[in-house]
Amino acid sequence: MKIVKYALSALMLSAVLFLYGNATLAGNTAESGVNVNVEMQHAATHRLTLYDMLSGNVRKPVGYCSGTVVGPHAILTAQHCFKNSNLVGLDDDKTLLHISEALLDGNDHVIYIVDRAFMTWTGINERQPISKELVHFWGNPGDSIDVYRDGYYKSMCTVPYYDNGQTSLQCFVLSTYKGDSGSGVFDAAGSVIAVISMGDISARMQAFPLAFTQEQLNAVTDIK
């Protein structure tokens, strides 16, 4: 059972959802269809156990990341976490999930469709964060599991990228570590507005802007 670890201010709990006309995916529960609260956000976040089917031992984990349930059969995470496998473990569950479909946005994000029915999921809002906007997430850094942290969005920033190049990313002041990759970053209204891709020792987290199409997000909740 998860232990909730959060300390959100009244401002965060009462803030409204900002909509900018970008693609959105509503969060709800299978029973009620209501917007997600803090407990539901937490329940929708998980540690993902990764496997490599070409490693010679398909049942031996090769690493860990984090992910967020965003539909009745859908998990949002970082694309760089996965390779050569259609299997994923969830938290301490010994029964592995099979991935039947992958929805990519081309920005290091993937929504995996899996053979499990989830009762609670969160929403996605592909808007640009606002400077100094408060955010929070649960992740799985190193050997620790289910660790809550909060921070704020700083600005767009230019960071080194492959082949001595550079790229422009969303930069947050958030303490992250290996194992947090793929965690959904929540705004005060409970929507995922970013996914952790990279971090550094200065507690600056970088994220590619979410770029799923509205058709992709609609398909996530249409899958039965």
Structure, explained:
By secondary structure, the chain is mainly beta. The chain has 2 domains: 24-122 and 213-222, Trypsin-like serine proteases (Thrombin, subunit H, Beta Barrel), CATH 2.40.10; 123-207, Trypsin-like serine proteases (Thrombin, subunit H), CATH 2.40.10.10. The protein has 3 helices and 17 strands. It has helices spanning 10-14, 38-43, 214-222; strands spanning 24-25, 28-29, 45-50, 63-71, 74-78, 87-90, 97-104, 109-114, 120-121, 123-125, 134-139, 147-161, 165-173, 184-186, 191-195, 198-199, 204-207. A 6-stranded antiparallel β-barrel has the order 3-4-5-8-7-6. The longest helix has 9 residues, at 214-222. Residues 1-21 and 29-35 have low confidence and may be disordered.
What is the topology?
Elements: H1 10-14, E1 24-25, E2 28-29, H2 38-43, E3 45-50, E4 63-71, E5 74-78, E6 87-90, E7 97-104, E8 109-114, E9 120-121, E10 123-125, E11 134-139, E12 147-161, E13 165-173, E14 184-186, E15 191-195, E16 198-199, E17 204-207, H3 214-222
Parallel strand pairs: 10-15
Antiparallel strand pairs: 1-10, 2-9, 3-4, 3-6, 4-5, 5-8, 6-7, 7-8, 11-12, 12-13, 13-17, 14-15, 16-17
Briefly characterize the structure.
By secondary structure, the protein is mainly β.
Q: List the secondary-structure elements in sequence, H or E.
A: HEEHEEEEEEEEEEEEEEEH
What is the total number of structural domains?
2
Instruction: Report the uncertain regions.
Output: 1-21, 29-35
Strand order within the widest beta sheet: 3-4-5-8-7-6
Question: Which of globular, elongated, flat, extended, rod-shaped describes the shape?
Answer: globular
CATH class of the largest domain: Mainly Beta
Classification by helices and strands: mainly beta
The overall strand count is 17
| CATH homologous superfamily assignment of the largest domain | Trypsin-like serine proteases
Strand content: 35-45%
Number of helices: 3
Kindly report how far apart the N and C termini lie: 27 Å
CATH architecture of the largest domain: Beta Barrel
Output the CATH topology of the largest domain: Thrombin, subunit H
Instruction: Classify the helix fraction into a percent range.
Output: under 10%
Q: What is the CA-based Rg, rounded? A: 16 Å
> Mean pLDDT across all residues, rounded?
83
Main sheet makeup: 6 strands, antiparallel, barrel
